[in-house]
Amino acid sequence: MNLFIRTKKRLSRFLSAFLKKRQSRIGIYGPPNAGKTTLSNRIVRDWTGDALGPVSEIPHETRRARRKEGITISNQNGNSLTLDIVDTPGVTTKIDYQEFVEYGIEKEEAIKRAREATEGVAEAMHWLREDIDGVIYMLDATLDPFTQVNIMLVGIIESRDLPVLIVANKIDLPDAAPQRIMKAFPQHPVIAISGLEGDNMEELYEHMLKVFG
Amino acid sequence: MEKIRLILDDVMEGNIVVLEKGLSPEEQSRLIEMTMMEISPDGFSGIEMETYSAREGQSSPGFFGKLLGKKGPGARMTVIGPANQMKTIKKDKDLISAWVSSR
Fold first, then answer.
1. Is B60 an 8 Å CB contact of chain A?
2. What is the pTM for the complete model shown?
3. Is B51 within 8 Å of A151 when comparing Cβ atoms?
4. A112 CB neighbour count, 10 Å cutoff
């Protein structure tokens, strides 16, 4: 009898491990200073009370991808979704340590930051090809969205058939024009938010449930 | 990978590479990744890149094309150069313009 129960338990553990789909990994991508870490922190704080990483006006403050696992978001209708949030370094095609020096950082530290940033961007690009199940693409709504990096990255995401939500961030600023982003990427849902102030986060969560659920 | 290596080696030597048919999204992704790995202090600082999209004015893949998995025309012409020499690349409707310093 004991042998029968043990075998049954083992079989059930094996089957559940085999059939259980791992949680979706949602990467927050975008150019530097779009507000990716601010949004990641807000999502993580809203649903777990925790935070992911420090934010700064200096580009490439996030130089290593940070991951928070098992975040469950839900709505009033009882729909819920558990996912891992991956905050990634801002994607760019060039990094010069002089950029950090201009922000008053010592040369040695600036070189170190630049090296970390290049490694972080390379890692983020690799993950996008191998390890990400969905993307929140963050854009600063005060800036022109028609940049080579934005067009290229959205193209890369589309080519991998990953579900994508485009976020027009910083709508609390007077120059914000989320309509420009909506016009630039009409093929994708665009949600206008302020990650800093927490404006329109409910709509973002609703869309996350729809797009990544 | 060899194609990306070839482009990057050329750009690192200070050349501007013009690709008639552009790069696939996969190649673009690898180009960014490899570019990041080549950046060094006071040396190579990355690339500037601009693509002239073929979306406008070109026919879509059509019903049968879509059935066969074709995703429509991709990028047409792509210009890639060293970031420290190509300070600005601008794109107007039919024109890509670059400011190149010959250091």
1. no
2. 0.82
3. yes
4. 16
